[in-house]
Structure formats: structure tokens, C-alpha cells
Design a protein that fits this description.
mainly alpha; Farnesyl Diphosphate Synthase; two-stranded antiparallel ribbon; 16 helices; metal-binding
């Protein structure tokens, strides 16, 4: 725990230092741009830093990494957190979500700025457009910070491989995000028997790879890991990432707002076509399925309707099915981990982290 806290502090310090340098650039253009940096700081403060932790564990899993300069992996871990913040800003726009971690989402912050200033036009339009630009800015900054870290690497081959893995992650998560919004709208014309498989594909590319697998591999690549070592981390990271997102999907429907920072049942209002929903639909009779389909995705769902859908999902047995899937995926991850060349002490640290990310409560 102490080591994780130390990493979080190092990553936060690296982010803060980086933002100071970028603040000088944007405020030189115009003091009106200070909101971009201020809101960036807000979204980059706190959080569990799971991606940063997996990146560090990937680095530590490589023999000899303890003797290396750690600045490249700290920069990569910080870059992953900035990339994550960018993805969340854009995700909240796509989902019309007003909150993030219990506070206003980026587009709502910009709306408030517009309203407080008494500016022309519609606050909603200004908020959405400004948040898109903030997300784009954060994406660019994540690249810049990563490049700064790679320049400090003594191994140019490892640096190139780390950059390649980061680039692939960025492409895959964008593709996964598109698949997510596609499924929310195209499910109606897809074969019923394919919906579960399609929902699982969204999990893999939108979340599992980018939340767990890619950070592990990026960290290990920067430490000079060979192909066999990287493949072992991929074999561990993918099922664990799937379990992580399956848990997140349960929290998106049943989570306590005071814990998750999002309104309870938010995924139901957004119409997320998750594995949980696919399993629910399979278990329901036609009339109940039509009832679910008729309400899912309605942003105006009230508390009684949310409760009704939650009860329907529970009664279908889908929650137990997802819990079984989580257990099976974690078991697969552990099997892969124990078959890997990773040192026992790092394996234990990864086991502990795996428990943390998949046992979050409602």
C-alpha cells in the first residue's frame, strides 16, 4: 500500500510539473485560456490511478528494472492518466453525463462559465464545444508528456516499443468507443444470438486492453522486456481487464452514487448495451424484454423506473451470471500469471492489484 501511495504521489507531481509548463504556453496566448488548465488540473487530481499502477507493475516485472532510471515509466504512467482524463471528457459528452467523480463533468463546467459570464449564445453549445477542445488538448498533452519520458530512456529500442504500444492502445480504445455507441443504436437490427458477443467485443477494446493490458505492456516494454515476457503480461492483463469492466458495468447499474461519483443507474439512462443487458435480455420472456427495451436509453428515467429495471435485471439472474464471468476471468488471469516468467514478488503485487480492481463494491 505504501508503495502504491508513493507511485500516486510521483505521478501527481509529474502531472503538476507538466501542467505548469503548459500553463505558461496557453496563458501567453491569452489569459482567457486559463480555464483550460484549471479544469485540466481538476480532472487530473485524485482518482485511483489504476492505469499508472499497472504500468509500474509492468516495469517492475522485468528483471533488472530496479537498476534503471525510472523517469521514463513515471512519465508514461502520468501520460496514461492524462489520456484517461481526455477519454473521460469525451465520454461524458457522448453520454450526456453531467457528473464525473461526484462533481460536474467538463462540459457542465464550461456551461457554468458561460452562464456566469453572461455571454451570447446557448451555454449548452458552448459547454459541449469547449469540452471537446479540452479533451483534444489533453490527448495532445498525453503524447507530449510520454515523449518527454521517452527522451530520458537509455534504451532507444525499448522507447520505440513503448511508443508503439501506446499508439496501439490509443487506436484500440477509440475503436472500442465507436463500437460502444454503435451498439447503443444498432442492436435492434443485429441477430439476437450475436448481442452478447458484440457486447464482449466492446469490453475488450473500449476498456480491458486500455485499462489493464496496455499499461502493463507499456511499462514492461520501456524496461526492455522481450516478446515472451510481453505476451505473458498480455495473457494476464486481458482477462483481468475484462473482469474489471464487467465489475464497472454492474456499478453503472447498481452502484451507490456516493461511491461511484455517478448517479445510480446512469448506464440505464444512457442505454449502455453491456454484457449485463445482453444476459438479461436472453433470460427474459418477450413481454419483459420489450419492457426493458422500451425504457433502456431514456434519459428521463425517474427513480421508480430505475428501481424497476434494477429489480428486473436482478430477477433475470444476469447479475449472478456476470459475477460468475468475473470469477472465471480473474481465474484465467491468475493461471496466466502463475505460468509466466514474472518474479514471485511481482506476481504477488499483481494478484493484490487484481483483487482491488475487481472487488469494488456497490
Amino acid at each position: 500500500m505504501a508503495e502504491s501511495n508513493q507511485l500516486v504521489d510521483l505521478v501527481q507531481t509529474r502531472i503538476d510539473e507538466f501542467l505548469k509548463t503548459r500553463q505558461l504556453i496557453v496563458t501567453t496566448v491569452s489569459p482567457d485560456l486559463s480555464a483550460l488548465v484549471n479544469f485540466s488540473r481538476q480532472f487530473l487530481s485524485g482518482g485511483k490511478r489504476f492505469r499508472a499502477q499497472f504500468c509500474q507493475r509492468g516495469w517492475q516485472s522485468v528483471p533488472g528494472s530496479a537498476a534503471l532510471d525510472s523517469s521514463p515509466v513515471i512519465a508514461a504512467a502520468a501520460a496514461l492518466e492524462i489520456f484517461h482524463a481526455a477519454a473521460l471528457v469525451h465520454d461524458d459528452i457522448i453520454d450526456n453525463s453531467d457528473t464525473r467523480r461526484g462533481s460536474a463533468s467538463a462540459h457542465k463546467l464550461f456551461e457554468s462559465l458561460h452562464a456566469a459570464g453572461g455571454w451570447a449564445g446557448a451555454p449548452v453549445e458552448f459547454g459541449r464545444a469547449s469540452a471537446i477542445l479540452l479533451g483534444d488538448l489533453l490527448l495532445g498533452w498525453s503524447d507530449e508528456l510520454l515523449d518527454e519520458g521517452l527522451q530520458a530512456s537509455a534504451d532507444p529500442v525499448a522507447a520505440r516499443l513503448g511508443r508503439h504500444e501506446f499508439n496501439q492502445m490509443r487506436t484500440e480504445v477509440t475503436a472500442g468507443q465507436y463500437l460502444d455507441i454503435l451498439e447503443e443504436r444498432a442492436w435492434l437490427v443485429q441477430p439476437e444470438e450475436e448481442l452478447l458477443e458484440r457486447a464482449m467485443r466492446v469490453i475488450v477494446f473500449k476498456s480491458a486492453k486500455y485499462s489493464v493490458q496496455a499499461p502493463l505492456v507499456i511499462g514492461a516494454a520501456l524496461a526492455g522486456a522481450d516478446t515472451a515476457h510481453l505476451d505473458a503480461l498480455r495473457a494476464f492483463g486481458l482477462p483481468l481487464g475484462i473482469a474489471y469492466q464487467l465489475r464497472d458495468d454492474l456499478l453503472g447499474v447498481f452502484g451507490d452514487a456516493s461511491v461511484t461519483g455517478k448517479p445510480s443507474g446512469d448506464d440505464l439512462r444512457e442505454g449502455k448495451r453491456t454484457v449485463l443487458i445482453a444476459l438479461t435480455r436472453t433470460a427474459l420472456e418477450p413481454a419483459a424484454r420489450d419492457y426493458l427495451d422500451g425504457l433502456l436509453g431514456d434519459p428521463g428515467l425517474d427513480a421508480a423506473q430505475i428501481l424497476s429495471l434494477q429489480e428486473l435485471i436482478r430477477a433475470s439472474g444476469a447479475v449472478e451470471s456476470v459475477e460468475t464471468l468475473i470469477t472465471d476471468q480473474v481465474a484465467d488471469a491468475r493461471i496466466a500469471l502463475h505460468a509466466s516468467p514474472i518474479a514471485p514478488e511481482v506476481r504477488q503485487q499483481l494478484e493484490t492489484l487484481a483483487e482491488t480492481v475487481t472487488r469494488r463494491s456497490f
